[in-house]
Amino acid sequence: MNTNLFKKVINKINSFEKKKIKFKLVLFGTKSFLFFKNFNYKIIKYIKNKGDKLKFNNILKIIKNLIQMYKKSKIDHIYVANNYFKNKLSQIPRIKKILPLLQSTTKIKRKINYIYEPKSISLFNFIFKKFIFTEIYQSFLENLSCEQAARMLAMKNATDNSNNMVENLRIIFNKARQFNVTQELNEIVSGASAIL
């Protein structure tokens, strides 16, 4: 699961490098850090994920820093790479563009003026931050769901394989026991016929 996602990220990074676009990485989880530290990529932040305990406060701090960097024009785009949970058997690696937001190409025929309480700019800033936080946090949760689904599938396969192995061993044991019983009966019958 992680390998497919890492390959997709490497492909995206290669496309950036071909276009001479500079990039920085923010990594979550030990596996991503161990994988990407082998390359000469600039890693600005790494959060160690302890098991399945994803702390929202750690993510929140990083998201705030990224938004500040974006507002100060230190970065132009923010992408999130995660596994998309399609179903228990299928997790799709994807890279999603978070910022800048795509502008709508449809034209509004009639402009309607609304009165906002509080001011529209403060309302927009509040909604904008919540939207970015929600999008990124959802990506983390989807990735955790994919990880749990992959674990569940691996455990199901392991259980099925062990049940098959137990059944095969039971058949072998029963054949060996039956062979011993048959051999003992043959010896008894041979001994009895020798006496007569």
Give a brief rundown of this model.
The chain has four helices and four strands; from the N terminus they run αβαβαββα. With 196 residues, it is an alpha+beta fold. The radius of gyration is 30 Å and the shape is elongated.
Principal-axis shape equals: elongated
Helix content: 55-70%
- Number of DSSP helical runs: 4
Order of helices and strands: HEHEHEEH
User: Unreliable stretches, pLDDT < 50, 5 or more residues?
Assistant: none
| Rg, Å, rounded | 30 Å
Main β sheet profile: 2 strands, parallel
The spatial strand order of the largest sheet comes to: 1-2
- Find the structural class using helix and strand composition: alpha+beta
How many strands?
4
